[in-house]
Amino acid sequence: MDSKVRFKLNGEHVTMTADPLRRLIDVLRDDLGLTGTKEGCGEGECGACSVLMDGRLANSCLLPLAAVEGKEIVTIEGFRKTKRFELLKECFTEEGAVQCGFCTPGMVLAAEALLSADPHPNERAVRDGISGNLCRCTGYSSIVAAILAASKRGEGLW
Amino acid sequence: MSIRRPVRLSEALYIRQCEDTVLMAGGTDLMVKYRAPAGARPSFTKDVVLIGHLKELNYLKVYEDVARIGAAVPLARILEDASVPAYVKEPLASIGSPSVRNLATLGGNICNSSPAGDSLTMLYALDAVLTMASSKGFRECDMADFIEGPSKNRLAKDEILIEVAIPMGAYDRTFYRKSAQRRANAISKVSFFGVASVTGGKVESIAMALGAVGPTVIRDRDAESMLKGIAVPGRREASDRALEHIAGLVEPIDDLRSTKTYRRRVALELTRHFLEEVVGL
Questions:
Q1: How far is B212 from chain A (nearest CA, A)?
Q2: Which residues in chain B have Cβ-Cβ distances shorter than 8 Å to A110?
Q3: CATH classification of A82-153, choosing from 1.20.120.80, 1.10.150.120, 3.90.920.20, 3.30.565.10?
Q4: Nearest by CB to A42, which of B3, B38, B44?
């Protein structure tokens, strides 16, 4: 049942020998130990499992491993090595945008995907950008403020 | 069950010809439908053929009279394309969330064949034409003839939907509204899509479709005929007659998302809003 799937993961070429029907989130967490990617609903509704696929936000619970062949995947572990992450981390901390933290990896990647496409979003665009990411602690406003702050302070980063 | 990733459309069609398979483009419906407990492989009942990556299904070209969209083009790409008219985009933007729209495809929404599929009202009203390929060749099918009921359509076992052609019209009145539990990641309780063009003070063309109020999307061509040529602004006589006719076709059900009473009422009020407030009948 196993076959080889080749893709780029956090900047490095990887070849996974695994069941290609398994979900990407399971391969990331169980085979590769990348547990920053969380499973909330398992149905593409909560966004906790978000990763970047070719720079775009994607739910890793909806992707069979075979679908990432030849793609570039970035998880929160890869993204945290960037300057953009440092700024988002600062802004999330300052605005109190992290409480239990379960949604945070997905939320940060949603912010990255949004700011990459639109470096100066208004509040409405920020809310649309994170509309697929559920947070049960903050009430969202502090997260929106953090992303708007990162957009303001991150001149030239995105 | 296994998953296959053909490199070319011809290879995918060959697999379809030889085996009973299920096609997966974005996977946003199928991976939920066949979801297994966390960590376990999805419980598909047929072998899966991945087609989302196929170049032959990933083009988007808007001509003067028609938009030709490859069946595996993700919704996000349609929304980002400046040449696609806003009235085509609006229903697509109401689907899922940014991450879901990055994966989900127009062909997938059609072949999932849900009465609540949010691209479908638009495709019915605009007379979209679908092109299917098989190893024997190509065939076309009108959108309205393709879906037979919830999750049932006329895609044959050896076929793949490859293109959605949407005729382009000069509409000066457009209205789309989706009623759902919340704005993102919610399935429609009821939805409405309507377009019209008014020239010389008369309705020149008009098309409407209602979602989630019957086993398939409902389009009432008789009601539309009653409205063609009617003077605008009108005195609500024509719109009342059309609404009465549409009311006879709307057959909503009670389910976990809504009730038939709510669906019927909102469907007809959205239609009334379009006819009276947007078109001015």
A1: 21
A2: 98-99
A3: 1.10.150.120
A4: B38
Residues 6+ apart with CB under 8 A from B200: none
Domain B3-167: which CATH class?
A: alpha beta
Q: Which residues in chain A are contacts of B184 at CB distance < 8 A? A: 131-132
Distance from CA of B197 to the nearest CA of A (A): 31
- Give ipTM to 2 decimals: 0.97
Residue-wise pLDDT tens digits, A43-87: 999 999 999 999 999 999 999 999 999 999 999 999 999 999 999
Q: B192 near B246, Cβ under 8 Å?
A: no
| Secondary-structure class of domain A3-78 per CATH | alpha beta
The count of other CB atoms within 10 Å of the CB of residue A67 is 28
Q: Are B196 and B173 in contact (CB under 8 A)?
A: yes
Residues of chain A with CATH 1.10.150.120: 82-153
* Amino acid sitting at position B33: K
The CATH class that applies to domain B173-279 reads: alpha beta
Supply the pTM of this predicted model. Answer: 0.97
Q: Hey, is the C-beta of A40 within 8 angstroms of any chain B C-beta?
A: no
* Residue B129 C-alpha, separation from nearest chain A C-alpha, in angstroms: 28
Bond prior to B233 in cis (omega within 30° of 0): yes
Return the residue of A nearest to B28 by Cα: A62
